[in-house]
Amino acid sequence: MYYAIHTPDLARAKAFYTEVFGWTYRSDDHIEGSSPAGGLGAGPPGIDLYFEVPDIRAAVAKLRELGGVAPDPVQAKSGWSCLAEGGDLGLWQPADGYAEADPKCAEGDLFYYVVPVADDEAKARYAAALGWELSPGSHSNGWNIEDSAPPGGVFVDHAGAPDLYFRVGDVEEVAERIRKAGGTAGEKQPNSAGWHAACSDDQGVRFSIGSLRQS
């Protein structure tokens, strides 16, 4: 799995996320030590989440067979990738040495995600193309993706890009840092595993922060 945060002003985005999460960056704008891996890039505000597949051409073919929309994959140093379903679903077949078998999901890392889909047909199409096994979640219309690292789910309601949750130690403390850095942060909300808050950066990129309840 890999995520890419896009903003119109890359330097400003780097400063924001350093202030909020303490991120530092490699020369290629990847986030140093992120696990799962992530990076920043210039572009319209948004986050792309790429799901690892063993054979991207087979995944693209399955999406198309089931009525989905997927462009031909393109190759880069890190492997083959494409943004399918109108840009909402990222597929990635990593080159040798780029896959991460056991992401840490530590503080500042991506540690949960939700993939919104329009209907049960889209849910089945995504699951078939990516080899997902789904089980009922804690919310109506919600489904858990089994054996996903980091954990994630599917929510049947509307089509859209995945919602990403970054792990923090204290939701209220980090929410205040986000506001002071020029972003927005909602009130802390409880969930089955802990707490979360919906946020956005100072250029309009939406994300969430979350912490785990101590056992």
What features would you describe in this structure?
There is one protein chain. By secondary structure, this protein is α+β, with helices and mostly antiparallel strands. 20% of the residues lie in helices and 36% in strands. It has 4 helices and 15 strands. The protein has helices at residues 10-21, 56-65, 120-130, 171-180, and strands spanning 2-7, 37-42, 46-52, 74-76, 79-84, 89-94, 110-117, 134-136, 142-145, 152-156, 163-167, 184-185, 189-190, 194-200, 206-212. Strands 7, 8, 9, 10, 11, 12, 13, 14 and 15 form a 9-stranded mixed sheet that branches. Helix 2 packs antiparallel against helix 3 (120-130). The radius of gyration is 17 Å and the shape is globular.
Low-confidence stretches: none
Helix content: 10-25%
**CATH homologous superfamily name of the domain at 2-94?**
2,3-Dihydroxybiphenyl 1,2-Dioxygenase, domain 1
Give the N-terminus to C-terminus distance in angstroms: 28 Å
Q: Strand fraction band? A: 35-45%
The biggest sheet amounts to: 9 strands, mixed
CATH topology of the domain at 2-94: 2,3-Dihydroxybiphenyl 1,2-Dioxygenase, domain 1
- CATH architecture term of the domain at 2-94: Roll
The radius of gyration computed from the alpha-carbon positions, rounded to a whole number of angstroms, is 17 Å
Provide key terms for this protein.
nine-stranded mixed β-sheet; 4 helices; 2,3-Dihydroxybiphenyl 1,2-Dioxygenase, domain 1; 215 residues; six-stranded mixed β-sheet; alpha+beta
